[in-house]
Amino acid sequence: MALDDIKSKAGKIDNPAEKVAYLKRELDKIESPETKNSIRKELIEAIKEKAKVKLKNGDPVEYHITYDTFGQSLEPVYFWTLDFMRMGEPSGLGLEVNKVAEEFEASAGGGYFGEMGTRTSVMQDRAMKIMETINAVIKSVINIIYDLKEFEMRLEVYNNLKSEEIEKRRAAQYAIKGIWMDQVDIKMGIGSINNLSRGDLEFVTLRDAFMQAKDEKDVDKMDLNKRVKIVLKRKLAEYLPWLELSERELRKRYDIEKHYLKVQVDSLRLYKKWAKPYLRAAQKLGMKEFNSPDIVAAFNNMQMELVLVGKREIKPDAAFETYKKLNFKNKYYACLEAKFNFRTAPQSVRAQGGATHYAHTGVIDIYFTAYVFTKSELEEIEKQEVFEDMALVEHFTDVSLEALQKDLEHFLEPEEKREEAPKKKPFFDIPNPFKGFKEIFGPLKNLRGYASKYQEDQIKKVAEESSMGTCLLCYDLFKKAHRMVTW
Questions:
Q1: Prediction pTM value
Q2: Residue-number span of the structural domain to which 261 is assigned
Q3: What is the DSSP string of 369-384?
Q4: Alpha-carbon distance 151 to 57, whole Å?
Q5: For the chain, what is the mean pLDDT?
Q6: 234 domain residue, yes or no
Q7: Tally of domains in the chain
Q8: What is the enclosing helix (H) or strand (E) of 60?
Q9: Fewer Cβ close by (within 10 Å): the C or N end of the chain?
Q10: String of b and e for 67-88 (b: at least 16 CB within 10 Å)?
Q11: What is the dihedral angle through the alpha carbons of 73, 77, 78, 81, rounded to the nearest 10 degrees?
Q12: How far is CA 88 from CA 85, 318, 328, 338, 474, in A?
């Protein structure tokens, strides 16, 4: 299904829970990274819409402040909010805070655009140089894996020589003798078994005799003329030492190739580790197109968006003391989202030593929004946001190894299969009348009651009240701290 069709169908679903379930199903079906990123954004927005705390009239609990800071920089406003959200009482809200979004766009004619573009280019160039090395190592790994598979097939024939099954031993013997004749003995020219047994040199039986003979004693027992026996014994004298030596050398080369594969994979992981910081930095320094009228190419201005999310787990005993003894299906978190929309005019500031940085002054729109998330919803949002931010990086550095993962596990981490000796059954197998009681009554030792839907709703209600109070308190104290009118 096309991206527009998925979005259109999702937009027609009024129930937030059904919308989230639908987007999850569609996300699992899609393979295109670009389409996945778009659906992930829709999924995150749907989960957040479902988790918004709402008033009785259906309006979300959200407070909006517009703050003009052209007389001072924007950094103190952002860090005041961050510190107040994460500091403990009595000087803060005591939330666990994460930054979940950071995007910006600078006007093409401004100095900030040129500065960030130069830094981005440096990061991209360094990352691409490492990526070229990574590609070379990947090609080497693929070639080594193919060589090892070929070695395994040849060693399997040598292993079958020691098999307990007669047919396997015989087939392996024929296969190895065929290899020796085709690759080693053929270099003898006219004196090779294949050439001697053509039919014009009276050695027609030589090939068949060689395939059947195990050693010189077998040759003496065969009904052959003396000339054939002499040649056959000479060929066996050459073949038998080669058989032992070739197996030893083949196993040695197999072990060396496996060690070399491990070295190459470790090198690949090291290069990946080196490349990721540059790829991340290049991605973070890359600008997003907001398509906003606030950005004018001829001006020296920029637009920035930052989102902070603070969370606090609501324990069951926050509703009633007796709820401590119950098992709840979900853990509930009272959450506060602080979203900053900056419209700034970056000013170049020269520090000591000649270093240059930019001070941002302008207008801030701050949105404080209350949410109640379950633990699974928070994990889903965090997982999708990580995928969204790092999709390109992971595609470059991890997909190549994932495709080879089974082969790498086979050669680098072989599973040791331990055959357990079968237990002897006693002559008199008397059934135990108490067998099974442990399985029945064992779980009752730590048995706790499960919470009902009503009790789950009580915890969620407490979480909503806590989230609403936290949101209002942050909004109110922000205004007071920045000398705004409050009531």
A1: 0.60
A2: 129-281
A3: EEEEEEHHHHHHHHHH
A4: 73
A5: 79
A6: yes
A7: 1
A8: none
A9: C
A10: bebeeebbeebbeebbebbbee
A11: 170
A12: 8, 18, 27, 18, 13
